[in-house]
Amino acid sequence: MSSQNDRSSESAGRQKITRRSFLKFCSLMAATLALPTKYVSQIAKAMSTATRLPVIWLEFQDCTGDSESFLRAGSRSDPLQPGVTDPGLVDLLLDFISVEYHETLMAPSGFMAEKSLNDVLEKYPNQYICIVEGAIPQAQGGVYCTIRGRTALSIAQQVLPNALATIAIGSCAVDGGLSAALPNPTGAGGVLDTIPGLANLVNLPGCPANVVNLVATIVYMVTFNTLPDMDSSHRPYFAYGTEIHEECERHDYYEEDKFVLAWGDEGHKNGWCLYRMGCKGPDTRANCWQVKWNGSTSWDIGAGHGCIGCTMPHFWDSMTPFYQSLGNE
Amino acid sequence: MPDIYIPIVGKDSSNGTPIPPGSSRIVIDPLTRIEGHLRIEANVEAGKVTDAWSASTMFRGIETILKGRDPREAWLFTQRICGVCTTVHAISSVRAVEDALGITIPDNARLVRNLLEAAQFVQDHVIHFFHLHALDWVDVVSALGADPAQTSALARSISPWPNSSPEYFSGVRSRLQGLVDSGQLSLFANGYWGHPAYILPAEGNLLAVAHYLEALDWQREFIKFHALLGGKNPHPQTYLVGGMAIPVNPAGNRAINPQVIAQLRGLISMATDFVTQVYIPDLKLIASFYKDWANYGAGVGNFLSYGDFPSSGNDPNSYWLPRGVIFDGNIGVPSQPLDQQQIKEFVTRSWYSYSAGDSNGLHPSVGETQPTYTGPQPPYDNLNVDGKYSWLKAPRYNGNPMEVGPLARMLVAYTNGHERVRALVNEMLGALGLGPEALISTLGRVAARGIETSLVVEQMGTWVDQLEANMNSGNLAIHNGALWDPSTWPATASGWGTTEAPRGALGHWVNIANGKIENYQTVVATTWNGSPRDAAGLPGPFEAALIGTPIADPARPVEILRTIHAFDPCMACSVHLVDARGKPLGIGVTVH
Q1: What is the CA radius of gyration of chain B?
Q2: Interface contact B48, partner A, CB < 8 A
Q3: DSSP alpha helix (H) spans, chain A
């Protein structure tokens, strides 16, 4: 654990990250983004010269799960060099980005919080990134989510069109997510549903989204001054271009017809394929199999439960029932 | 829009709500550093809060969404009620379905659930203290004036934590100075810095800022505990009705095995160090400067704990933290037994309507959730607090508003003679030079959360030991599949399941018909604590706790944040979610 190292080597303290670990971070980012290694130095140059990118993080009909995911940033170890990790969240916050508005984390409340938002809009027009978490309800004039007496939609309409780019993080912001699950009682939708035609939008679905993909998206934007290659649904190919089932660590068992048939059976104990327990790996495009979670510690399939397809459109309806396969082998 | 309204003739500008002459109406919206969307309106007179209203401003309607779905997957939906107190809704959900169907769970499943929940308590309480609450007591800008050598001396006087050299604190200070010099204070911009209510010395502020940053790294490492047992955090994906999905197999690579056991122990050790050497010493240091906050925030004085951490199956009688209710602050006698039939929810002042009228409360098993918004159309400046004013219902126990959370749990355990709780409570009170009566206060809530963290982190190893012993003895069972197939279920069944979330008592009620969810109800911690008034006009715990809070500067009401944050609100959890009868909501619906 890096924290153990911190404790024995106090000088690690909270100094700026070392050049070496910074370059490792850049190479991990290049790997996540599926870029050739020749781009590592370009990423490093961009990240070390960029002024801190102002970020407005808006929360609407959410569970704060994507913010919590964000708080897990930077713990990915390099398996080839134990002890070397990404720059942590602290480094991200202090050196690379400047989160100016985030209701779960910011110091000010009320009027002063609103001032923080307005300060960014005034000081950095078209220069800030807006990250949206949560769905935007439109039924009943938007009364199902208000902040400062204003609707989520009116805040989004004020902030998003003037952003350098908007990142919809998590399935709720992408397509309404849980709030929009049938019968969608509050008329909830994602960013594109509620602000049609919004330019420079990146969708990072998932429930929650994996913070590795958020950080990689920001790094890409800072390095190349453009958005990563995306599909027609604004999802970056680097994160949503592969099918979980094809790349799954249990895929060989699938090929060998070795399936878990009951929870706790011999196949389950031995890590066989979860398809017959309802795993949605064959229906799901995401890079969880590659980047995993919480510093590459594990992922859902690694912990013995099937994938629920949480990166896929309207997955609460399209991927349920969760404990039956959809027959798309 | 302005934060403060200082009416001239005793009426506020927007809706005619009478305000006592000479008082001012403070509105705090968004109340930040919590989960979700909370709005507080308060009247302030002669430097004190004289009345307060707590309002939730977000509603999702998961009730209708759950209806008709497979009860075995309800936990995946309900877990997304909240990503901060992730995992607890999953546990309540599977327990409710297990209760309805009479399913017993293997001992390994009990232990894994206890461990996931315990890890959640520890991580969440530390995050709450440093990242959500500390900035109410700690002046970040003041830290720039701290002397690193004196900060080092202070740190070493309260803890053996190794990051304590003058060079270390000098580094933290210059990093903070770098933020200021860059003109981008980020999350720290526009705080109430320099407010006279901040009384920590500069060195105390620098120490706390350093630990704020360290805790950001610590929480991320420690919560790998959830990934080891549940694949990821937030939203670990390993629960099942009937047990857990993480196998136990000493010879397996994708299972709880000796290597995983060792990793769990390593993380517990790391957490123990951080809690005992950083969190608790910092808590005591900060509390020692703010002891007057034992005089504010008493609240309703009634406490409810469902209890949790079973020693046997799901049996409430085997809970390590006991179940019970306390009334009128009476902590001199054992708590009373809890009778769930006494729980009723009121909507008299909430944006819902009941078919039999809004003045009677309903038990969750027969509850209704018909959203009926009667508030001002946005954009608005003020709510009409004389009418309905919140998306929270008002749960009451035998008609009483009840406080839930770490203080409730610690008091119920304390009054029941829980030896370790009594020892930790007495140690904390002794260190602060306070008596037990000080517990029922804003400061007491802060202290109780710390006490509970110490208690839980030292208990976790016992459950790992039991898990290892089971594994080594060949007891590998993790799931009881006898009733997995819905065709084995009775035509109808109903049950309830509880857990203790970090923020307090959490109950789920489920009715099953023909293998599907007929209705599903949750009554959540912050619904208890953040509730609006009820049919009898009784204020909820937030509202009651704010009355009497001193306000030095109505334009910068940091004191209100102190008392509200001490409850650790979680608004996404608390908005009433479920509808017993699945009535059509009669509002615009988008169908994909």
Answers
A1: 24
A2: no
A3: 2-8, 19-32, 40-49, 65-71, 89-91, 110-123, 152-159, 171-175, 191-194, 211-224, 237-240, 244-247, 251-255, 266-269, 288-291, 315-318
Residues B224, A297: C-beta atoms closer than 8 Å:
yes
Confirm if A159 and A194 have CB atoms less than 8 A apart.
no
Phi, psi of B145 (to 5 degrees): -90, 5
B478 touches A at CB < 8 Å? yes
Partners of residue B240 in chain A, C-beta under 8 Å:
263, 305
Across residues B46-70, what is the average pLDDT? 93
The complex scores an ipTM of 0.94
The type of residue at A258 is K
Question: Cβ(A117)–Cβ(B564) under 8 Å?
Answer: no
Q: How many CB atoms lie within 10 A of CB B166?
A: 15
Q: Assess contact for A169 and A66: CB atoms under 8 A.
A: yes
Residue B186, chain A, CB below 8 Å: the answer is yes
Q: How far apart are CA B519 and CA B65, in angstroms?
A: 10
Q: Is B253 a residue whose pLDDT tops 90?
A: yes
The label of the residue with tokens 């909270």 reads A14
Contact B186 A6 (CB under 8 A): no
Q: Of the candidates B410, B385, B408, which has an alpha carbon nearest to the alpha carbon of residue B29? A: B385
The pLDDT score that the predictor gives to residue A92 is 75
Of B61, B186, B253, the CB nearest to A98: B186
CA distance, residue A220 to nearest chain B CA (Å): 22
Residue B381 at interface with chain A, using a CB cutoff of 8 Å: yes
Instruction: Determine the 3-state secondary structure of B344 from DSSP.
Output: strand
Q: What is the pLDDT of residues B548-572, one digit of tens each?
A: 999 999 889 999 999 999 999 998 8
Query: Which range (A134-148, B54-68, B409-423) has the least confidence?
Result: B54-68
pLDDT tens digits for B573-589?
Answer: 777 544 333 332 222 22
What is the rounded CA–CA span in Å between residue B536 and residue B235? 38
A316, with CB counted inside 10 A (0-12, 13-18, 19+), is buried
- B245/A contact by beta carbon, under 8 A: yes
> In whole angstroms, what is the distance from residue B99 CA to residue B102 CA?
5
Instruction: Tell me the chain B residues in contact with residue A69 when contact means C-beta distances shorter than 8 Å.
Output: 83, 234
Interval A73-131: pLDDT, tens: 875 544 444 454 556 677 777 778 899 999 999 999 999 999 999 999 999 999 999 99
Average of per-residue pLDDT across B244-260: 97
Residues of chain A in contact with residue B234, where contact means CB-CB under 8 angstroms, are 65, 68-69, 208
pLDDT tens-place string over residues B187-211: 999 999 999 999 999 999 999 999 9
- CB-based contact A64 B214, cutoff 8 Å: no
Which residues of chain A have a pLDDT value below 70? 1-18, 50, 75-88, 328-329
Is B36's CB within 8 Å of A64's CB? yes
